[in-house]
Specification:
five-stranded antiparallel β-sheet, three-stranded mixed β-sheet, about 40% strand, single chain, about 160 residues
């Protein structure tokens, strides 16, 4: 995934500001809402992230971003948890999810394909290995446009 210098600067400011709240910065991205830039932050915590935690983080980050005057022009700040189908911002974040199904989309085709979906076979350095029906594909994470976990709901129990 590409690294934007402003995102890197914001992450450097946001991560320490979130520590007192007991949360970590999972990732950040830009989006747009009309003429305004949207700064979307994902936060995570060992015991999960509540709406109240997101609100506290949003207030704290808004104050810090405004004090540092890092945002050019008007912006909207959104803070949320990564959710069940969490997006991955680096290969290291994927390591705890080995064996679970992931959806990976590439910037450029590799072996004629831009989309991989299957169990995460392994993480080796910056390489992501996805198993699609026994065929393991290795992709360097910088080639990944987006990657997220695919939540699989348990099968409903049937009455015996």
């Amino acid at each position: 995934m590409t690294h934007h210098p402003l995102l890197e600067r914001l992450a450097g400011i946001a991560a320490p500001a979130l520590e007192p709240l007991g949360v970590t910065l999972w990732g950040m991205e830009f989006a747009s809402a009309g003429s305004r830039m949207v700064v979307r932050l994902y936060i995570d915590a060992e015991d999960g992230v509540s709406i109240d935690t997101c609100a506290k983080a949003s207030r704290a980050l808004g104050v810090v971003f405004d004090a540092e005057d890092v945002m050019p022009g008007a912006y909207v700040l959104e803070v949320s948890s990564p959710g069940l189908e969490r997006r991955f911002f680096n290969a290291g974040q994927m390591l705890p999810y080995v064996g679970q199904v992931v959806d990976v989309r590439l910037f450029e085709p590799q072996d004629g394909r831009r989309h991989l979906r299957g169990p995460l076979a392994a993480i080796e350095g910056e390489d992501v290995l996805v198993d699609e029906a026994g065929q393991v594909t290795r992709v360097a994470f910088p080639r990944v446009k987006s990657a997220h976990l695919v939540h699989e709901f348990p099968e409903p129990r049937t009455k015996a």
